[in-house]
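Tip: read the tokens left to right.
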């Protein structure tokens, strides 16, 4: 069964916005990946996350940073289409968040559901899953890649699991241009998650 993370919202990937500190593994890895002299959060974000190519549920190729992260606030979770309970339940929970966002969804905020089961999930399988959940729409991308790419992308997010059924239900939200990323409680009310996403977009609460 997927592991449920009971975490209060906290700032993550702080190294994208600050110099590396001795003894901090994440900061050190970002410092080695990002141009040392660059003060541009977007350049550091691109260097950290990479621009690996994934495929969405419509068969379109999407570069992870350039096409998916760079221009909107994003909410990221992981799923696998054979999941019997937790993934459908979380998708329905996020569907309620999507309703709370109203016309901001797709315009300011995008949802990314990444498959943690690259050996099985295909764009077609993700398309069926999204349709079954009633969330197959432009502002919500269901994404797959080969195993090496999936490991790299989810590894950067702290979300890779060798067994799909052991994945977490952790939600990661961020504004790449502002280098501001947070972990959100998966059990938080939809209204609270939507408010956090609006805050990341720079709107007052």
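Filled-in amino acids:
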């Amino acid at each position: 069964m997927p592991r449920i993370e009971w975490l209060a919202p906290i700032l993550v990937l702080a190294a994208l916005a600050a110099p590396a500190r001795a003894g901090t593994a994440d900061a050190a890895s970002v410092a080695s990946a990002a141009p040392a002299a660059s003060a541009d959060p977007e350049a550091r974000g691109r260097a950290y996350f990479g621009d690996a190519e994934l495929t969405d549920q419509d068969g379109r190729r999407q570069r992870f940073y350039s096409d998916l992260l760079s221009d909107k606030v994003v909410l990221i979770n992981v799923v696998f289409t054979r999941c019997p309970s937790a993934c459908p339940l979380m998708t329905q929970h996020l569907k309620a968040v999507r309703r709370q966002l109203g016309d901001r969804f797709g315009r300011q905020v995008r949802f990314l559901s990444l498959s943690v089961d690259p050996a099985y999930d295909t764009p077609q399988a993700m398309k069926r899953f999204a349709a079954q959940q009633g969330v197959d729409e432009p502002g919500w991308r269901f994404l797959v890649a080969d195993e090496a790419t999936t490991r790299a992308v989810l590894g950067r997010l702290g979300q890779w699991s060798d067994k799909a059924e052991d994945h977490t239900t952790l939600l990661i939200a961020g504004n790449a241009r502002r280098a501001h990323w947070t972990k959100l409680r998966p059990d938080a009310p939809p209204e609270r998650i939507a408010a956090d996403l609006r805050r990341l977009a720079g709107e007052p609460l």
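Strands lie at 10-12, 53-56, 61-63, 73-79, 109-115, 140-144, 171-175, 180-184. Residues 1-37 have pLDDT under 50 and may be disordered.
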